[in-house]
Each structure stands twice: as C-alpha cells, then as structure tokens.
Amino acid sequence: MEKNKIPSEMEIMKMSLFMKVMSDSTRVKILFAIKSKPKSVNEIVDLVGATQSAVSHQLSIMRGVNIVETQRDGNKIYYSLADSQISKILDIVKSHI
C-alpha cells in the first residue's frame, strides 16, 4: 500500500474507536433493533433482553461516536441509526459472516 493511501493518524484513531464501539454484542443487538425504525429505550429493552440501565448506557456510548441519534416526541426519546451508512455496515458484516 502506498503511503499516501493510508488514512491520516486522526482518521485511523477515529476508525479504530468506531470499530471498538461496534464490537460489543449488546450494542450490535441494539443497532439491529433500531435498524428499521426509531424505538424508545423500553422497546429496545424488550427486544434485546438487557436491563434498562445497560441499554441506556450502551446508547450513550453510541451517541458519543455518532452511531445513533435521538428524536424527542413529547416526553419520550426515540433512538435511531445516525445515518444509512451504519445500516450498510451492519448488512456488510452480517453477509460477511
């Protein structure tokens, strides 16, 4: 690989962090749970079988690296994938295995 093809050190660090966050099995379950449409924490808890505290913690981590985003509807907060690229990444990884 040519040196000019290697991403910058900052890009490498961000990519590494992104992959680290994506490597947790509970987070992957959450991502698949919200892949088709936004869901509340309670809906996600029911789908993934984790505690409300654990789901909220994982969502907070994923928000921090722009993997998920929130939408408020009255007093409820709904979580969704931050962009369509996340969905594509999930599909690619699933098809790879």
Described by the principal axes of the CA atoms, the overall outline is: elongated
Biggest β-sheet, characterized?
Answer: 3 strands, antiparallel
β-strand amount:
5-15%
Count of DSSP helices?
5
Order of helices and strands: HHEHHEEH
**Strand arrangement, major sheet:** 1-3-2
Mean pLDDT: 94
Distance between the termini: 26 Å
Low-confidence stretches: none
Class derived from helix and strand content:
alpha+beta
- Number of DSSP-assigned strands: 3
Helix percent reads 55-70%
Rg of Cα set: 15 Å
How would you explain this protein's 3D organization?
The protein has 97 residues and is α+β, with helices and mostly antiparallel strands. Helices cover 60% and strands 14% of the residues. The protein has helices at residues 9-22, 25-34, 41-48, 52-64, 84-96, and strands at 39-40, 68-73, 76-81. The radius of gyration is 15 Å and the shape is elongated. The mean pLDDT is 94.
List the helices and strands and how they pair.
Blueprint: H1 9-22, H2 25-34, E1 39-40, H3 41-48, H4 52-64, E2 68-73, E3 76-81, H5 84-96
Antiparallel strand pairs: 1-3, 2-3
